[in-house]
Amino acid sequence: MTEHGQKPKRKKIQVNILIRMVLSLIIAIAINDLLILFFSKVGNEMEWKWLLNFLPYLVTPMYMAIFIITFLVLTRRIVKDLIHLERGLQIISEGDLNYRVSVDRQDELGRVAFNINRMTERLQRQIVKERETEKSKMDMITGISHDLRTPLTSIIGYIELLRTDSFQDKEEYTRFVQNTYNKAIHLKKLLDDLFEYTRLTSFDIHLDIKRIDLFQLLDQLLFEFEPIAQEKGITFVKEIGNAPIVTLIDSEKIARAMDNLLMNALKYSVKPGTVRVLMRSDHQQIKIEVENKGNPLTQEQENKLFERFYKVDHSRSSEGIQTGAGLGLSIARNIIELHGGTLTLNHINNIFKFTLTLPSEGSLANRKESGVVNNHDI
């Protein structure tokens, strides 16, 4: 039986045993009759009266012995498969989850072997998943500790300088205070990201769904990012049209997701450079693309880009934009998936294209009616 084979067809093992029993009966009768004829002939030819007299007492024992031997021979494969099942269960119970029971049958024994293998595979996947979850928890603790410790250490350092009057003049005092404030804001942003991610991954998350003009929301976000982009030598190329695109979304969370995407593009764009933002819609979905040119990523880095607390090499970080906790893209994807959409990355020739899709108003309205989101006046 193969590891990933299809479930065996139903076939009763009782039928197999019954067939072998009938065959044993027929064979025993045939052999017994032949032996009786042989002994009778020998007794008559040799005039062995004692053999002829003793022959009636041999019929039943001889028949039973032939039947038992024949039945054991015909059922030896079933017994062998049962022993194989028992040994397989013993091996698996001792912790070897890579072992698979190779019993190729189409009856109850085959289904038992199939279910044992399927159970072992599921147990193995569950153990791997639990190990990954445990590793993820440890990575989370390590990531949080590292990301929070850095700005906190700086804050403590600046406060110590201020506490001991270790500044030369008013200008240096003002710079220490400003740096302390900046580090505190950075620390708050890290905590906000962590809190937001925790909320988004909880089971009782609800969306505040309302009719929102997505064009106006995106246009406002791009307007707010313009000063930051200009300061970093980045130009926004907007292809979002000029017509309203009204849909059912949680505007605060969608704004957070798009904010994270735009900030990611500004951080990792080649400077000077451009960030292209495109928005299109039809009756099925709304598509938003954020495209920029950046430094190349390995396949492993690309695969991990949406993982929580994952950050690419710091050499790709943009000066003047503080490094986050590595939750931005993970938060964005969670928000989009909560709305029934998708967030994907296409990376070709150092061009990074994040594609965000959201269902149309009708699609999200169906989700609302099914109770996935909160009820609000639409």
Overview of the structural elements:
By secondary structure, the chain is an alpha+beta fold. It has ten helices and seven strands. It has helices at 13-46, 49-74, 76-93, 108-163, 170-200, 214-231, 251-268, 299-304, 328-338, 361-369, and strands at 210-213, 234-239, 246-249, 273-281, 285-293, 342-348, 351-359. The strands form two sheets. A five-stranded mixed sheet has the order 2-4-5-7-6. A two-stranded antiparallel sheet has the order 1-3. β6 (342-348) and β7 form a beta hairpin. α1 runs antiparallel to α2 (49-74) and α6 runs parallel beside α7. The longest helix is centred in the middle third of the chain and has 56 residues, at 108-163. Residues 1-5, 313-325 and 372-378 have low confidence and may be disordered.
Quick recap of the structure?
The chain has 378 residues and is α+β, with helices and mostly antiparallel strands. It has helices spanning 13-46, 49-74, 76-93, 108-163, 170-200, 214-231, 251-268, 299-304, 328-338, 361-369, and strands at residues 210-213, 234-239, 246-249, 273-281, 285-293, 342-348, 351-359.
